[in-house]
Design a protein that fits this description.
The chain is built from 2 helices and 11 strands, in the order E-E-E-E-E-E-E-H-E-E-E-H-E. The protein has helices spanning 78-90, 149-164, and strands at 11-14, 23-26, 32-33, 38-47, 50-56, 65-66, 69-71, 94-105, 110-119, 130-136, 170-174. The strands form 2 sheets. Strands 4, 5, 6, 7, 8, 9, 10 and 11 form an 8-stranded mixed sheet that branches. Strands 1-2-3 form a 3-stranded antiparallel sheet, with no helix packed on it. The chain is elongated and about 60 Å long. The two termini are 29 Å apart. The structure holds zinc ion (ZN).
Length: 184
């Protein structure tokens, strides 16, 4: 950030009084511009045991497979956002169920929330952000061509739970493997 979105003057990067982290602070109007993790919401749509996946038409990870997911909008509930992303990316109508996974993607400054879902009909297809959309049996899931580790985690836990006949909530922290976690 270079300029204040409130007044257009330049901002500095400093620790405000009483704070403990550096923030972008406007030198003119003194507005503090906080930056916080963003929420990504998605679901694992299932139909008769098969899982709906989308092959990404956009970067990052163009050409790789993922579940329908995307940035939550202001004014949406988590469930509304998950259903909207299914419609946008897979033209798929879904019934959103329980939360399967919450993944903290520290290096991307994102939190991913993944729901279980039922596909309501087979009228799905590739939205503008997808190259193709398809249903996969568990044995057909393209594990080595998944776009993101958070998707791999959510799918693995989803399938583990399904085999065990339960619906539990799973947490995971992901960080760059090269970046060691600070000791606390
Ligand atoms: Zn300002």
């Amino acid at each position: 950030m270079k300029f204040c979105s409130a007044c257009g003057q330049s901002v500095g990067f400093l620790i405000p009084d009483g704070d403990h982290l550096p923030r972008y602070v406007c030198g003119s109007c003194k507005t503090i511009h906080y930056q916080n993790p963003r929420l990504i919401v998605g679901c694992v749509p299932e139909h008769e045991g098969k899982i709906l996946l989308c092959r990404r038409a956009i970067e990052p990870r163009r050409g790789f497979w993922t579940i329908p997911a995307g940035f939550m909008e202001n004014g949406e509930s988590l469930q509304t956002a998950a259903a909207r992303e299914s419609m946008e990316e897979a033209l798929a109508r879904v019934d959103i169920g329980s939360i399967c996974a919450i993944v903290h993607v520290l290096h991307a400054e994102q939190v991913h929330v993944v729901f279980r879902a039922k596909l309501l009909n087979l009228d799905f297809g590739a939205g503008p952000e997808s190259l193709e959309v398809a249903l996969f049996e568990e044995s057909e899931i393209p594990w080595r061509d998944l776009a993101f580790r958070s998707v791999e985690f959510a799918l693995q836990r989803y399938l583990d739970d399904r085999r065990a006949g339960r619906e539990t909530l799973h947490f995971q922290d992901l960080d760059h493997p090269a970046k060691p976690k600070p000791r606390v």
